[in-house]
Write a structure and sequence with these properties.
CATH topology of the largest domain: Aminopeptidase
Low-confidence stretches: 37-41
CATH architecture of the largest domain: 3-Layer(aba) Sandwich
Number of domains: 2
Distance between the termini: 24 Å
Oligomer: single chain
Number of strands: 17
CATH superfamily of the largest domain: Gcn5-related N-acetyltransferase (GNAT)
Mean pLDDT: 85
Structural class: alpha+beta
Length: 376
């Protein structure tokens, strides 16, 4: 566990910054499980394998930063910094995604917060900017990150993200427009698929940049996503849309910490109804959710008819008899015109997207923000 002493001022500091590595990652994972304090509807990722494996989809290079209190040896705060390549204004840039930012309540002062961000600066000099998401009800963290501080990065609010939880059987879309065919991707489609995504990159800021190797590799940033998990929409022989059904259950599951009061009341009756319909049910708080992430969503000119054709194909694949009965989860920015295609029953979790440039005057306002939920 490397100690980053050069980031500290003074000879006998109380708080020490570290980069967490190796076996210490598992210790940190257990500590995070014990110290979560939840209200409203919150959830967290639980690792189903080595914690290091769960970090792979976050980015090409991931650093787990922590600050310890030398008075008692406890973690005071932690954060995960992931570098990833994305499209900004149609060009490929490297950004740092900051996630799992957590500071114990008794340590929520400028010292711990400042040290975590010194670690961030130390490792991200080659990044264009910093991206993060904050749950909508986490006002303390949201306001803290947006405050202007001398020597700190200046985040700004890019709007709301909507994470939609969908039962496959609930998908109800009009008949697709004639001429649009949907199918499972093959390796021979990958070059054309990546070219199509690059063509559409100007429409969506932060659209992830993937290579053929990312898709065909069994580990890395698309770990456990196979070519056959990608669905294509075509007009003739031309790709006009794509979406991937990503099963991450081998490396992690999402666990609800709590539900809103009203949902706790109706959950038993709702689950009975869902069970009769053959749909996935909501687990108790603290139990894992069985889900699939809809990722890599790219639609030519955000054509709603192409999106609906893919939704119908997703339903056919995930709601068929003999499937696992998993929920579908899809994240979209509030400005995404494809939101109008989710006009059937679903549950929405809201969060906010924030971004800070790293000393570079770069505009991120030309496209609709895109965040890959499977990489959070």
């Amino acid at each position: 566990m490397p100690v980053l002493l050069h980031l500290i001022k003074g000879n006998h500091p109380r708080f020490i910054p570290y980069e967490i590595m190796g076996e210490e990652l598992e210790v940190l994972a257990l500590w995070l499980e014990r110290h979560r304090n939840s209200s409203g509807f919150t959830f967290h990722a639980r690792s189903n394998t080595a914690f290091q494996n769960m970090l792979q989809p976050k980015g090409s290079h991931t650093i787990v930063a922590a600050v310890k209190d030398t008075h008692n040896g406890q973690f005071a705060g932690v954060g995960i910094i992931s570098k990833k390549k994305v499209f900004i204004n149609g060009s490929i840039r490297q950004i740092a995604y900051v996630s799992e930012l957590f500071i114990q309540e008794k340590y929520r002062n400028k010292s711990v917060f400042g040290l975590l961000f010194r670690i961030l600066f130390h490792y991200t000099k080659d990044c264009t900017g910093y991206l993060s998401t904050v749950m909508e009800d986490n006002n303390h963290l949201f306001e803290l990150l947006l405050q202007k501080r001398r020597g700190m990065i200046q985040y700004r609010d890019l709007g709301k993200l909507k994470t939609m939880v969908i039962t496959p059987q609930a998908i109800n879309v009009p008949a697709p427009t004639k001429g649009i065919k949907t199918m499972m991707a093959t390796v021979s489609d990958l070059d054309a698929l990546l070219h199509f995504r690059a063509q559409q990159a100007g429409r969506h800021t932060f659209l992830p940049f993937y290579t053929k190797e990312d898709i065909t590799n069994s580990s890395g940033i698309l770990r456990d996503l196979c070519t056959e998990d990608i669905l294509l929409a075509k007009r003739g022989h031309e790709i006009v849309g794509c979406v991937a059904i990503w099963d991450q259950s081998y490396i992690k599951t999402w666990v609800p910490d709590n539900y809103p009061f009203w949902l706790n009341l109706v959950r038993p009756a709702l689950n009975l109804f869902l069970k009769i319909k053959g749909s996935p049910t909501l687990p108790k708080a603290g139990e894992p959710v069985s889900y699939l992430i809809l990722s890599m969503l790219t639609i030519r000119e955000d054509d709603i008819n192409i999106f609906r054709a893919l939704l119908q194909r997703i339903k056919e694949r995930t709601a068929a008899p003999g499937t696992k009965g998993q929920l579908l989860v899809l994240m979209m920015h509030q400005k995404n015109p494809l939101l109008s295609g989710i006009d059937f029953t679903h549950y929405t979790i809201k969060s906010r997207l924030i971004f800070a440039a790293n000393g570079e005057d770069i505009s991120v306002d030309h496209g609709i923000p895109y965040v890959e939920l499977g990489a959070l």
